Structures are given as C-alpha cells and as structure tokens.
Amino acid sequence: MPLPVLKNYYYVMRHGESLANTAGLIVSHPENGLHDYGLSDKGRQQVAAGIDASALPSTTRVFSSDFKRARQTAEIVHQQLNFDHPINFDIRLRERHFGEIELGPDHRYADVWAQDHLNPDHRESGVESVSSVVQRALSVVLDCESNFSDETCLLIAHGDILQILQTAFYAIPPQHHRELPHLQTAEVRKLQQVKASND
After folding, report:
1. CA distance 93 to 86
2. Containing H/E element for 88?
3. CA angle at residue 161 from 170 to 109, to 5 degrees?
4. Is the pLDDT of residue 113 over 80?
5. Residue 94 clears pLDDT 70, i.e. is over it
6. For residue 199, what pLDDT is reported?
7. What is the pLDDT of residue 196?
8. Which of 1, 14, 54, 177 could pair covalently with 183 via S-S, beta carbons 3.0-4.6 A apart?
9. How many CB atoms lie under 10 A from the CB of residue 100?
10. Do 191 and 153 touch, CB atoms closer than 8 A?
11. In the chain, what is the straight-line distance between the N-terminal and C-terminal CA atoms, in Å?
C-alpha cells in the first residue's frame, strides 16, 4: 500500500519500559495486554523524559494502542503536555499478534524476524504477518489524511508495529523492517516520507 504525499506531520512513540519488558516476555494477545503488563516505574520516568524532550505542539493529536502499557504512556504524555485534543485509542495500533509464542521468552522475536525477512506473508506459529501489520497501521495514517490537514499526529504503540510502519514512510518492503533504526522504549521519532526510488 504506497503512501500518497502526506498532508500531516507524523511522529511515533514506543511505550515506556513495561512489566513484560522487565520479565522478558512476549505479550501481544488482548487478553493479556489490555489489563496487565503496564509500565514499570522506570517506564513511567522514560515516558516523562521522552515526551518532555519532543517539543510537540499542544495541538498534537494523539492516537494510541489500547494495551495497558501504551494506554498508560499516552495518558502520561497527554497530561504532561496538556494537549488540546483527547486521546484516540485505536485497536489498529495494538501490538503485532505473536500467536503461539505468546508469554514466551522475548528471545523468540529473533526467530520471527528471520522468517519476516524471507516472506512478508508468513504466519509461522500463528504470528501476524508483516503484510497485515503494515496495512492496519497504515490505515490509521490514511484516516488521519482523510480527516486532517497540516496537523501533527502522534502514534503511540509497540516496538514491532511501529518498526514495520516505518517501512511505508521509507518506501521499502515491510519484511526489511529490522534494517531500520530500532525504536527504544519511550523514544519519540518523527517519520519522514521518502519517495520510492522508481518514482
């Protein structure tokens, strides 16, 4: 799904360190992520520091995953910068679904990423494909493009979905998402649109 020339400005923010991160666990199913595995104390501090350094305008529109760790991140962000608009919680920004490796050790991510590189449509162990992830993440951006113009939009979500979303802005195949700079917990990053080389 190629991006049109964008009318708005887009920033992404990965949630702060979560209790899943400190435990080294993969938490991607709604039954585990909606109400459990929120931010650690360090994660709350990371969010406060990260958003304070961002200098985002008060008119920023915030769109967030509804998983607890992202929701808490968005609430800290919104309160700290006193944004004009309410938070929009959107299920399309939930973490990538990791299927059968749910609640497994986070070193299993590397196995999934290796398969991603070979095939963007793979669903090994019931994992959501990168093709599916980029489509749902992009649908949030395209909705913003339909509804707003010359606005700043901040998308607060999870490592894999934001890593994969970046590929659309950089006009590279989504299976190469791990080749882009890794988003750290509570990092705020502006997404720069790059034209595809054949444009």
Report:
1. 17
2. strand 88-89
3. 110
4. yes
5. yes
6. 46
7. 66
8. 14
9. 10
10. no
11. 15
For residues 154 and 74, is the Cβ–Cβ distance under 8 A? no
Q: Is the pLDDT of residue 195 over 60?
A: yes
Residue extents of the structural domains in the chain: 9-191
The alpha carbon dihedral of 14, 19, 25, 28 has a sign of negative
State both tokens at 174. 């989504």
Helical axes 130-147 vs 159-170, angle rounded to 10°? 70
In this structure, the dihedral spanned by the alpha carbons of residues 141, 144, 149 and 153, taken in order and rounded to 10 degrees, is -70
* Number of Cβ atoms within 10 Å of the Cβ of 143: 15
Q: What is the pLDDT of residue 3?
A: 85
The pTM for the full model equals 0.95
- Say how far apart CA 100 and CA 112 lie, in whole Å: 11
| 97-115 average pLDDT score | 96
What is the second-level CATH architecture of the domain 9-191? Answer: 3-Layer(aba) Sandwich (3.40)
Rounded to a whole number of angstroms, the CA Rg of the chain reads: 16
Q: How many CB atoms lie within 10 A of CB 182?
A: 10
pLDDT of residue 1 exceeding 90: no
Residues 6+ apart with CB under 8 A from 20: 26, 27, 37, 69
Residue 177 has pLDDT above 70, yes or no: yes
Torsion angle of alpha carbons 8, 57, 21, 100, nearest 10°? -30
Dist CA 123 CA 98 (whole Å): 9
Mean pLDDT in residue range 35-47: 98
Is the Cβ–Cβ distance between 164 and 120 less than 8 Å? Answer: no
